[in-house]
Each structure stands twice: as structure tokens, then as C-alpha cells.
Amino acid sequence: MQAIPIIVFSLVLLIGGAVLAHIIGAASILTFLALDRARFLAAAPQRILANIDLFSLMSMPLFILAGEIMNRAGVTQALLDLASAMMARLRGGLGHVNILTSVFFAGISGSAVADAASVSNTLVPAMKKNGYPMDYACAITAASSVIGPIIPPSITLIFYGALMQTSVTALFIAGIVPGILMALVLFGLNAYMAKKYDHPRGEKVAFPVFLKRLWRAMPALLIPIVIMGGIVFGIMTPTEAAAVAVLCAIVAGMIYGQMTLKGLYDSLHRTAMMTGSIFVLLAAVAIFGYLAGIEQIPRYLSGVIENLGLDGWRYLLLLNVIFLIVGTFLDVPVALALFVPLLAPPALAMGVDPIHLGIVILVNLMIGLVTPPLGAALLVVSTVTKVRYWSIARAVLPFLVVQIILLMVLTFVPEITLAVPRALGY
User: Is 83 exposed, middle or buried (0-12, 13-18, 19+ CB in 10 A)?
Assistant: First the structure.
């Protein structure tokens, strides 16, 4: 009964448009008071600082800044031109270009929603001009945008690593193969759809032109190679690699001639806003996690799971369902912060590898971004292109099916995710 007023209060704040981090923090503090646990709040500041005073989190604002600079520095167009030169000549070529561009963008922003917005502004009009149905062009743009956060460097994996005290380096390495597999299944489906619906071929680019575009894109291509090479071979920590990424982004902007002081200022401003919102959320979740620990909620959940016989693959299947649903309705950082501390420990107690679990959760949340009725990537593409949301939602269903099939394979064949990290000693 004590929880009912707090739940009502939280719903009122949510409907009123309050920031979710504020709602989580306020509801947690009110719950402390309602349960006569107010004396424990004296330790709340310490718990908040412990939750955000993590070395791995230092890389997050730096990777965000690198992505913001590269988005303003001409890197995007260079990569788009290269992808077009490589894939456009094939049947359904612009669809392949769309997917390959998302692979390239993985080293820039690491944000599915940002990639969806960027590609919607550039490739969707080009696909329409070349005879593709608009709903298909929008659907493949949304579906391919999920690749970015899976292939490292990934802000989401840094967030998960901080929550679970797991090696960010191992998570980055583990994301490489699943990200490539996601791209391959989308390439395969696009090729099938192109043959079935006779999608057009794009312009054939002469080899000298291809070499020119490759040379122009080289600074952009070298950035993720330098970052991941330094991390994989132990030359740099993820935080040091993030600092190098910022420097490389600035140099690339100078090479492309689009690095301005205003662009740098806008990048810093945007980074400060995004970083601040993430750390406010982490502070709120720290209070929520503190409350959950005092009330032994994780132990209670473990008992419920054990009583229901949800061990091993059954529990992983349940996690897939839960994270796929919450990924449809909640922002990725919010979904991670709310559900990972509660639902991940029972999986680890069953022997699930934390690296494998992190990749499975990430892929779930990314697929949630293109899952109706509230998939964020679908909403962004619909807003940018002015195409009806439900037309895109229907067109994205085949892509959604193959992505969920890949998710099941990744879930129940952990070696796909863990082989490369283990081979490299992680």
C-alpha cells in the first residue's frame, strides 16, 4: 500500500514530461522515507560518487566528443562517397550502400538514432530518386542504423561495462563479430529483396574515381583502425584511445577543410549536454540500486527465478523478451541503468559470461529501436523523411525477423561473441 502513492506520483511526473532520471531519483528517495529507511540516505552521496567515479567512464565523454567533431568535419560525406563507389553498381546497390555506410559510421558516432537521422537526410532522397519505394528506403535505413552501437567503439558498451564492472576492452572486442554478422544478414536480405522486387542498380564508378574516393576517405577509415588497434594490442586503454580519437577527429576535420572554431564549440557544447544527462541518470540509478540492495531485491528476484525453474537458456530467453520490449519504449541508457543491475546478476550466478551477456543485451536494445510501436529509430526516420510511421513499420518487418534470428543465434552460441576476446587473452 505504501508504494501506491509513490507509483501515482511517478506516473504524474512522467505524464507531465519530467526527466526520467529525476523521476527515478525522486521515487527512490520517497521509497526510503515510506519504508522508514531515511537513516540510510546519509550514505547516498557516497554511493552516488562510487557509482560514477570509474576510470572507464572517462572515455565516454571523449568518444562522444570525437563523434560530434567527426559529424561536423566532413567525415560523413567522405565515407558515404566511398560506400557508394564500392556497392552502388550491384542490384539494390543503394540499399547495400545504406548498410555499409552504417558500418563505417560505427566508428564515428556509435549512436543508432544519430546514424538513422544522418542517413535519412542523405541516402533516402537518393534512393527515392533512383526508383526505390520510400517505405523500403526508410526501413533499411532504420534497420541498418542498429549496427553502429554494436561495432566498437560503443558508448552503450562503456555504460554497461561501468554498471557491471566489466572490462570495456573485452566488450569492444566482443562486439566486432556480432556487428559484422548483423551487417551480413542485412546485406543478404537486401540482395534477396532487390532480386525479388527488381530494385535498380546504381551508377558504376570508374576505378580511378574509386581510388580517389578511397584516398579521400582514408583519414576517416584510419580513425577506428587506430583506436581499435591500440586497444586490442594493449597499446592504449579505452580512455586513452578516446583521447586519441578526439585528436584524430580534429586532424581529419583540418584535412577535409571543414574544422571551424564554431564547429568545435558546438561539439563541446553538445558533448557537455549529453555527458551531463548520462551522469545525472547514473546518480539516480545509484540511489535506486542502493535501495534495491538494502531491500535485497536481487536476492528476491533470484529466488523467484529459481522457483520458476528459469535456469540457463530459459532465463536468457526471458531476458531477450524483457530487453527487446524495454528497448522499444525506453532510451538505451535508461533501459540499461534500470534493468541490468537487477536482471544481470542472476544470469551471472547461472554461469553466463558477463561479456556475452553484455553483447546479447546490447543487440536486444538495438533491435528494440526498430520495433513497433515506439521504436526510436523508426520515429526519427519518419520525422526526417515525412513518411508515415506505420508504412515504415510494415516495411521494416522482414529486417526485424532476420535481426531477431541473429539475436537468438548469438544468445545460444556464446562462442561467436567470446572467441575473439578469448583468443586475444581477455
Answer: buried
